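Obj.: predict assembly geometry.
Materials: sequence records (below).
Method: joint structure prediction, all chains together.
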Amino acid sequence: MQISMTINGTDVTREIEPRVLLVHFIRDDLRLTGTHWGCDTTNCGTCVVLMDGQPVKSCTVLAAMADGHTITTVEGLANGATLDPVQQGFMEEHGLQCGFCTPGMMLTARALLDHNPHPEPLEIREAISGQICRCTGYATIVRSIQWAAEHPAGAAAQTTEKEVHA
Amino acid sequence: MTILEDRPSNPAAGDHDRPIGHGRMQRKEDPRFVRGKGHYIDDIVLPGMLHGAILRAPVAHARLVSIDTTEALAHPKVLAVITGSDLQALGLAWAPTLSMDVQAVLVTDKVRFQGQEVAFVVAEDRYAARDALELIEVEYDVLPPVVDARKAMDPGAPVIRDDLEGRTDNHIFDWEAGNKAETDAVFASADVVVKQEIVYPRVHPAPMETCGAVADFDPIDGRLTLYETTQAPHAHRTLFAMVSGIPEHKIRVVSPDIGGGFGNKVGIYPGYILAVVGSIVTGKPVKWVEDRSENLMSTSFARDYIMQGEIAATKDGKILALRTNVLADHGAFNATAQPTKYPAGFFHIFTGSYDLAAAHCTVTGVYTNKAPGGVAYACSFRVTEAVYLVERMVDILARKLDMDPAELRLRNFIKKEQFPYANKTGWEYDSGDYEPTMRLSMKMAGYDELRREQKEKRERGELMGIGISFFTETVGAGPRKDMDILGLGMADGAELRIHPTGKAVVRISVQSQGQGHETTFAQIVAEEIGIPPEDIDVVHGDTDQTPFGLGTYGSRSTPVSGAAVALVARKVREKARFIAAAMLETRPEDLEWEKGRWFVKGDPSVGKTMAEIAMGAHGTVALPEGIDGNLDAEVTYDPPNLTFPFGAYICVVDVDPGTGHVKVRRFIAVDDCGTRINPMIIEGQIHGGLTDGVGMALMEIIEFDAEGNCLGGSFMDYLIPTAMEVPDWETGFTVTPSPHHPIGAKGVGESATVGSPPAVVNAVVDALAPFGVVHMDMPCTPARVWEAMQGRTRPPV
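Observations (raw structure tokens):
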């Protein structure tokens, strides 16, 4: 069957098997490998992408169900060379170690901040509670998302608490 | 580049908070990860690449009667179906394990655990490979399984390993440490002896990325390129050479970015070997990546120790001796990854942080019809089990003596002046200063205030628990005089090259799974030779590009490879002195070092920077006799001893009296890992390990039913903490440098996984004290806690 969708601002049309999962379509057909898969049972959230701005687990969405929709993957978070504040926050606050859950966590964070620009720590924890991280223990992910909330324009807006070396 | 100020996580530690290198520095690997440009095993696509899938046994114990692959082979997209008999013809049906046993690559005679590998399909795409698995017809003759390790040695128990010649039972090994007669004598005359059976259930490291491989065999030059999720690329290359007969110089193992390891990616799994066979058979690259159920059901589990603990003390609280008998369930094949001489790993550090008169342990390993493995999940070669045993036993003793558990620990610590300390089971603790660490954790927790709060709550019928754990780790395996894996000494190499323009590349033999080696190893070099970390590239994970070494597990990267890197940098610095002397037309002994530069003693304005010296080395300066025209060096580091990080953890829980639900309200962790390289990364490692500990203590378990069916085969059944189950960690630190490590650093990657489970369980048991509960086994799920409140405790299956 033929499907069309907008991915990271680009319209794509492809011929696919009807049973293909969105995560495999994104990874194997479009070669956007920043979206990961980790469990097959909708538990881990490494496959989270945004569908029309809402986080979805792309291992539990058929590619066909995304027909006509708008998808954002981690590759679409940055605006060219300028990182999304969420991406900056994860680097500033050590919100990642192995990096495998990170794309899904950041996309959920982006969706959260789009709807709630000043979330409480518990609201952040609730937002990411459908996703698993084995490395960080979550506290630094919470801090990373708080950093992004405090710096909606990104790093350029904050200079106070940093020493900058050449 | 941006360097953040070190966040003072612990003002009480004072001026020790001066990390090596450039301190709290953002990670060099992060820019690619936050852009989704990490490069993990499943991201690799080679031209013409095929996909493999494994057919797995549905039962735990069964004779293989027949396999019919006709229909699968007729699938239009299938290129090959490989069975055990095909491998037998190639001499590859069995492979050596890391514990001198053998493991079936594909079943030839008998299925020995549920999920065991039965056949391998190679197809054009991953969906077709999975489809074809459904087309393979297998007939099994089901046998009674051995599920409970306690029954493995019963007369008449089914013999699992009838493949081993002369084998008539399920016994693997007996091992002991310490002095039995001395220990028994101390127990016989002690005022107080308490006993407790303590079970550390089977758990699984379950990294977010499962295991996988892409094998690419070139039939023309006989060269194998193997991309693998491995924590130990060099050891794997050697083992693949031994198993496959492909000469070692024709094998290149590449470990790309790894999505978490925790010990799960140390062993060589049948899937890796099958990908290689698939590539040889089809002449094309073959990718195999397991799914989550395959990962949980067939790859290396952890723990599964049944421990009979006994502790002896005087009535005023002086701990005298510890002894234990352990039954170790190793599953169907003894595939534990550990140094050869230690079949129970480093379990014999079960004497913990206490000054004892005597200690003795025995460990018996048995086969069961469960997945093989045993050392995984950040356990430091079974220090996890050891620390859990001693820290539970000390708490049980405190209850018996009606003493505060913090006070009992403080009274029995090995004293600062006793280090280096020889314990009663053969370890020499390199350094330690336990009391300040314990006191700091109590201060951060507000310990006395917490006890007051608990007393008030108890009077109101509320269940609050405070749990303490004080652990001593032993990491950085290990000295070649004592330690090897399959005959390979546990050393690590490092090569450092300073390019003519003063930029550097350091090549290391260990492999990050998220630990941030590209950052911390650059920081170590930066500190030693004064080149900024951003000008130093760290190369790892490719056997063609890095020196030999045993890899990353057991918290050994910083203790072993970190030492190699510091020493190779010092070697380069010393070589630079000779070259600088030649450039300045003076004698090397007349030069003095300041970070990044050699200068003439008494005349600091005359000197050469490392960049100038590098250009000089590669230039036309006349070099002294014996000095090559480069600024490179290499080192292989054999550690003289292990390092002994330690820490004090305090956990506060609230238990719902109606449901048995445990809420971890606070967790205070004070760690001492010696010299700190990047405090941000250390804090991250500790947070992750604490989460593991909460997971194991409260929810994680791989159980089996009576037929040997694995009940933890997906993330719907094997529960892992989310952000809702863990608190905002409170961390602090003290610094007691290792006296033998070049920069005084100790490993830290597993400290929190080792140290935190007893803190959580001690807190839960403390909360349940009003019910008379003295011990309960993990996991402290609501159902099991509620049962304990009703006076029914039971060991996990």
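Conclusions so far: The longest helix of chain A spans residues 102-115.
To do: check interface contacts against the pulldown list.
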